[in-house]
Amino acid sequence: MVEEFKKTQDTAWCPGCGNFGLRNSLVQVLKELDVNPSEVVMFSGIGQAAKTPHYINVNGFNGLHGRSLPPAIGQRVANHQLKVIVESGDGCSYGEGGNHLLHNIRRNPDLVHLVHNNQIYGLTKGQASPTSEEEMKTVIQPEGVTAEPFNPVRFALGLNVSFVARGFVGESDHLKAIMKEAFLHRGYALIDILQPCVSFNKINTWQWYQERVYQLDEDYDAQDYSAAVKKAQEWGEKIPLGIIHRQEKPVFKDNFSPLKEKPLVEQETISEEKFAELLTEFK
């Protein structure tokens, strides 16, 4: 049953928050992939979205703000058998976590990164995030946002990402299909997931998204880089949903011979004598 992945405790999310839809899609995908909760580990940073590991029955780790990727990569290196999920909000992933995002794409570790993109900071009560629309007025930007919004899909393509997609929580079946493909992909898979913040973002509402999003045609070629760049730059009146681009590339462990053979958790432990010997080299 899907319910085995859910926790029944109350959440800190507002009624109508898009986080609920994202969590529901995720637990259904994990069930369809026939994995056990003990085989999944989720890493997050700080924020309302980053509380998801508290509300789903898998192994979880809350990091610092913007620091969900470093421990996730450590887990991936240590144990290749687990399904590793990184999930956090647009501020945590694209703002504070921007540097880690950049180098994570370069290294291409085998994990799935789910970004709750509601174009606002929710936990800290409504400041503009990197993806907030220009001229949006907030409690911190009373005269409106002046910076051009960050385009995560175009950014990822610029770094030659192995898999990047955009989903919308209002189209759950489509979102689940994208998630499933991301889990089956070998390498780093970034999914930018649009969702409303019903409390603090009065511009990008459920209706705003529903009037603009559309699913990519079945004949769209996600391996066509030029086509992907064009789709990544679409925003405003039309916003494409789907797998924007994917390609096969070596993953992080392929570049390290010890990790090709087996993960760290299965390798021989260094003896105390050998460890002491290694330490003497640094004296």
Mean pLDDT: 92
What is the CATH fold-level name?
A: Rossmann fold
In terms of DSSP E residues, the strand content is 15-25%
How much helix, percentage-wise, in residues? 25-40%
Number of domains: 1
Shape: globular
- N-to-C span: 57 Å
Strands of the biggest beta sheet: in what spatial order?
Answer: 2-1-3-4-6-5-8-7
SSE order, as H and E? HEEHEHHEHEHEHEHEHH
> In the CATH hierarchy, what is the architecture at level 2?
3-Layer(aba) Sandwich
Question: What does this molecule look like?
Answer:
The protein is α/β, with parallel strands linked by helices and 283 residues long. The protein has a single domain (2-251), classed as Thiamin diphosphate (ThDP)-binding fold, Pyr/PP domains (Rossmann fold, 3-Layer(aba) Sandwich). The protein has ten helices and eight strands. Strands 2-1-3-4-6-5-8-7 form an eight-stranded mixed beta sheet, sandwiched between helices. Strand 5, helix 6 and strand 6 (189-194) form a beta-alpha-beta unit. Helix 1 (18-32) crosses helix 6 (172-184) and helix 3 crosses helix 4. The termini are far apart. The model has no long low-confidence stretch (mean pLDDT 92).
